[in-house]
Structures are given as C-alpha cells and as structure tokens.
Design brief:
Number of domains: 3
Shape: globular
Strand order of the largest sheet: 1-10-11-6-7
Largest sheet: 5 strands, antiparallel
Number of strands: 12
C-alpha cells in the first residue's frame, strides 16, 4: 500500500515538473518570438527612414503650421463684456513680459511632440516621447508613414493611426489622415466658435463668425488631438495587453470597451492641461455641429433654419451605429458628454492664443443647454454588427453540434445498455 502511494506521489511530482518545464519553455519561446518580432520591426522602421517613407508634413503642405494655446479663461460666472476685456488686457500685459509668449507656429513634428508630451506627462512616458525618429526603448514612439510596403501593420491602407503593440509604437497613415483633414477645408460656415482679438488700441473685437482659415486650422488641430490622444491612451492603458501578443488597436474599425477607454483617456488628458482643457471641448462642439449639419443636409436636402440660435429643427437626424461601425458624430457626442460630466464649465471657457500677432481667445457662443438640446435632435439606431451576428451564429451552430452529439451518445448508450440486458 505504501509503495503504491509513493509511486502515485512520484507520478504526480513528475507531472507537475513536466508541466512547469512546458510552461517555462513556452514562456521562453514566446519571449524569444517577441524579441525577434521587435528586432524585425525596428529594422523595417530603419529601412523606411532610408526610403524616405516617414512624413514630417501633412496635406503635402510644408507651410501648414500649428498653434499651441497658452492658457484658459473661465467666463462661466456670467462675466460682463467689460470684465472679459479687462482680463484679456491683464493677460496681455503678462504675456508681453515673457519673450517666449510670442506667436510661435510649429511644424507637424514639433506640434505632435508638444501635444504627446502634454498628454503623457502623468505617465511613465513623461519626458519620453519621440516623433518620426528611431523608436527608443521605454519611450512613446509616434511615426507618420506614407506607405507600409513590408506590411508592418495589417490593413495599413485603411487606418488613420494604430497602436502596434511593438516598442510602444503608434503608426499613423499620413494619406488617410490627409483625406480626413481635407474634409475640414470644405467647411464654409461656423456654427458655434467665437474668436476675440485684443487690438493695439485696447479695443476688443469679437467675431462670432470667426476667420475661416483659422477655424479650419483649429478643427484640424482638434482632430489630431483626439486621434493621437486616443492612441496614446492605448499605449498607456493597454500597452501590456497588446505587447503580450494581441491584435493592434486602431482608432478606426471595431469600437469596443478598449476603444471607449482610449477615447475617455483623451478627455482626462485634456482636462489635466490648462491650455487644452478649454480648446478641446469648444472646438469639439464645432466639430459636432459640422457633422450634424452635413447629415441633416443629406437626409432633408436643406439645412436652412436648423439650429436653435435661428429656429429649432422639428426633424431628427437618424444615425445607424454598430460596434464595428461607430460614426464619428456619435463618438464625438460621447466625448462631449464625458467632458461636461468631468467639468460642467467645459463650454464656458475660452483659450488664449496669439493669432496674427494679436492676443486672442477662442471660445463658444453656445453652451451646455444648447448641446443638450442638439442631442435630442439625433436619433441613434443601434444594430448588432455583422461580426457580432457571425459570432452568435457560430455559437448557435456549435451548440447544435454539441446537442446532436449528446443525443447520439444517449441513443447509443441506451441501445448498448439494452443489448447488455
């Protein structure tokens, strides 16, 4: 009896040791595979640099430049025009004391570096950001490519940006982004943005229609903030999961919990930055209105008297949303909901900038109550995606196969049991 017990314990110990060896071997193999993949990835990036595939400008316009806002002005306490003007003058006096606070127009690389550095400042990547450089270990690395001939990222032609899961690299397709930014050049009307400039004689000029070129630029910058902030969120929130071998995470395509978390990260990141916290929600409202306006025209043929500032629309626009095809308008409205939830004054702020040599602030002349009304004019039809339907069908077929197998087994068991009797 004792011998049998010892043999059993020995067998169990052998099984446990063998299992540990297999686990260790699998782990080492996986680690070796990851190292090989990373080495090939970095070699390919270096090759792309030599081929000139890294894009330092967008829209084929090397004169396109970006502005960084300087600070936030809160006018949520029903401040009078005189108070706002007085605060602007004080801010101008402070700005003139600092030589660095002159109007500075940044290249794409400079702008993205500054933006990413701000958004990653409360993470392990604080002070560790590279843009269009050889990826560095323990850094957040962002690359803009014009093409991907060696297929570093599956489906590169259709994506805007994606977190690859290798070397903390975010790959962006400059051609896809260009097409999106070109849409903003078609903007012909301003629906909510106001720009005020403090003139040399001390007078304050508020232009509710805003300069068209500046408005387009602000919309482009805000979209880049959203797009890049989303991918930075993936790196910070989901880096370990993706680096361990799961699929890359895209701004486009499937919109699941990870994508919602990455969008939410954008709201948290801009909220933490004094200059971004006003700029992002204000221009996001303009983006929402531009999208709403476009869809309204498509569905009703006219956008005359659509907005409450002119006349409240009776009709709702209807949008179909699935987890695989989530319209940008729906995502933008979710971002705005989160922005207002985290900061009830989100639309009652303006951001300071220097525009054309003048101190200016950019704000919204429509506020939370208007946005809440606009939401009631959007009817979202949620449908299961084709992928979800396919998964459900696969489970159904699998369940039917199991049920048939059990039924067959039961019949055979009964028949065999009867013959034994």
């Amino acid at each position: 009896m004792q011998i049998d017990r010892n043999i059993t314990l020995l067998a169990l110990s052998s099984v446990i040791v063998l299992a540990l060896i297999l686990i260790l071997g699998t782990s080492l193999t996986h680690s070796r595979r990851v190292d090989l993949r990373e080495n090939r990835f970095l070699q390919t990036i270096e090759k792309y640099k030599q081929m000139g595939l890294l894009e330092n400008d967008l829209m084929n316009d090397r004169t396109l430049r970006y502005r960084l806002s300087l600070a936030t002005l809160d006018y949520s306490e029903k401040k009078t025009f005189a108070v706002v003007k007085s605060e602007l003058k004080k801010q101008q006096a402070l700005l003139l004391q600092e030589p660095d606070n002159v109007e500075r127009l940044l290249s794409l690389k400079e702008y993205v570096t500054a933006l990413a550095s701000r958004m990653a400042s409360n993470s392990v990547f604080n002070g560790r950001v590279t843009v269009n450089e050889t990826p560095q270990k323990n850094h957040l690395n962002i690359l803009f490519l014009s093409s991907d001939p060696d297929n570093l990222l599956t489906g590169f032609e259709d994506i805007s940006c994606a977190f690859t899961g290798t070397s903390n690299v975010v790959l962006c397709n400059s051609k896809t982004i260009n097409r999106t930014l070109e849409d903003f050049d078609r903007v012909s009307e301003n629906f909510s943005t106001a720009i005020a400039t403090l003139d040399s004689d001390g007078s304050l000029t508020i232009n509710s229609l805003a300069n068209g070129a500046i408005l387009k630029q602000l919309l482009k910058q805000n979209f880049l903030t959203w797009l890049l902030g989303h991918e930075i969120g993936h790196v910070i929130l989901h880096g370990n999961k993706v680096n361990s071998g799961s699929m890359p995470l895209h701004f486009d395509f499937v919109y699941d919990d990870k994508e919602r978390e990455a969008d939410a990260f954008v709201v948290h990141a801009v909220r933490a930055d004094n200059s971004l916290q006003a700029a992002f929600p204000v221009i996001l409202l303009e983006f929402i209105e531009q999208r709403y306006h476009k869809i309204y025209q498509e569905q009703y043929g006219s956008s005359a008297m659509v907005f409450p500032a002119r006349n409240s629309p009776v009709e709702q626009i209807s949008i179909t949303a699935t987890s695989y095809s989530m319209p940008l308008l729906v995502r933008a409205m979710s971002l705005m909901d989160q922005s207002i939830h985290e900061n009830s004054k989100a639309l009652n702020q303006a951001t300071y900038s220097v525009i054309d040599g003048k101190l200016a602030y950019v704000g919204s002349y429509k506020f939370t109550d208007y946005y809440e009304f606009l939401k009631t004019r959007v009817h979202i039809v949620e449908k299961p995606s084709i992928q979800s339907s396919r998964v459900a069908l696969c489970f159904l077929i699998f369940g039917m196969v199991i049920a048939l197998a059990l039924l067959a087994y039961s019949q055979l068991h009964r028949k065999g049991h009867g013959e034994y009797k």
